[in-house]
Amino acid sequence: MNIQEAKFQYLLRLGDSSLIIGHRLSEWCGHGPILEEDIALINIALDFVGNATSLLAYAGQTEGKGRDEDALAYLRDEREFRNLLITEQPNGDFASTMARQFLFDTYMFFLYEELKNSKDETVAAIAVKSHKEITYHLRHATEWMLRLGDGTTESHERLQSGLNDLWMFTSEMFDMDEVDAMLIKEGFAPDLNKVKTAWEKRVKEVIAEATLQIPTSTFKQKGSKEGKHTEYLGFLLAEMQYVHREYPGAKW
User: pTM of the predicted model, to two decimals?
Assistant: First the structure.
């Protein structure tokens, strides 16, 4: 693997994660528990899709094979996607969605804080813009963690259940491979060990304040870096890619 290929794979990992979580959040449109929250979730979804557009466009330029962001989003199959597994998990109830968002948004916050220092000017610029949005996302998710965790007995139990179900997907956020090693050396990408330390500290603080418990399960589900996904991604892509594949090349 050369540097160009490593950069392409890394950009796919970032862009795909934002694209898939954005699509998941868009599924809340018209289903939010209150009107303001319905609007908030859709705005957050749009932020993620905007981030994905920038990253996948740059990935296409880096690859140099004529694929733009639309081709990468709509014309790849399941095994070609590199999104983190946590992003493709079903929304479940509102508490489960907030648990997923808190775990993922905390990761994104500290990752993009590091990416702002990338020696690649395009990545750094995307990170600077996106980090402002992610700061809001994390504040929003944290507020709901505290409201639901330290709320009623039912809201507490639902949120704890969501954390328990999603915890197995958190470890792969910080797994590093040949791609990471090459790009860390180039100053393109950050060392995820630093991100992990900050993530663990913030997550433990909020979970404690929300009167919740850190899940005790040590089972780890991973594989996204090799294109191995849960059963949910295929169904998500079938829905997300339908119009583009049904009318290839259409413009409107």
Answer: 0.95
